[in-house]
Fold this protein.
Amino acid sequence: MMSLMSTMRALTVRQHNGAVSRSLHLTAIMEAARKGTREKARKKKVKVEVKKVGFIPHNQRDKKINVQRADKHVDDSWKQIPKDNVYVGRYYRWPVYTVVEAIKCHRETHHPSMYNVTNAPLNVEIELNMQGEKATRFVDNFQRMAMIPHKFDHGEDRKIIVFTKGNDEIAEAREAGASLVGGVELIKDITNGELLLTDYQYIIAHPNILAELVALRGLMKRKFPNPKSETLGVNLAEMINKFSSGISYSAIKDEYQQNFGLIKTSVGPLSMNDQQLEENLRYLLKNVDSMRPRREGRFITRVLLKSPPSSEQLKIDPFLYVPELYDKGAEKVKTEAARDSSRDEDTTEKVVATSAN
């Protein structure tokens, strides 16, 4: 009787008139079902603990997060032109100066009565549209050396080593200002470890020593002289002059906006005359424009002239020195020159391969 009562309990429910009565039976199965329902209800009431996360640097955050970033290509052509000298800059177009006017403005701010830095460098910021020939392709980062007509102290220690044979070529390289010039004996010193190539930033060679120079190809790697990088040629004086006094610059794409590139370099100090600074800038812009992709539209989008410690930046028109849009006729000439260069490079590769065999 007791075991029966443990498995089934009766509950008598009487109505108000007492005439009718009925029993509700609660079994063990029904108890288990009620217990599961209660457990689910308890779990819903449990508070979710939120873990506090500290500051995460931008380069370590989740790449899937879409952050709305402003377009770095500045286009103010839709803004109105200011009618006087007093206006709110963000509502109007940037004024465009000539190079001479911009240099004059910087000299006024660097006068002894103001910043008192009369020999400050004239820096150039060149903004590029790195869009390639296809919409999904972009121009790779590049580093080049622009030859300029007027030398200035660039503040860099550039050591140049030259490999050549012949007394005339060695004398020419030394007169041009090479740090070290030599032939087969110089190659032996490097092979024996008596001389380190890492002490020299630039390596230049004459074609007459190319067969012997192949022994150092493994040590030089990408610095191995070739016509494409203009480190292999007959005119040693011109190459040495370019790498010793030229403008070294790098075009770097933005990390988040792949079609935006920026070049920061200097064309000389403010103590140089206007004509010299303008000619250096012209040669620099032409060198940058030589990397233009074969597509329509602009490659150089904006050029600003700055001079520290002033934060003033003056916009100039670069299309007075280089073409604004893509020119197919000029590209044909450029392609022919590239073919000639590639032929020279193929000849160099054949000579190197023959020497290696």
About this structure: Residues 125 and 264 are 5 Å apart (CA to CA). The mean pLDDT is 83. DSSP finds ten helices and twelve strands in the chain. The two ends are 107 Å apart (CA to CA).
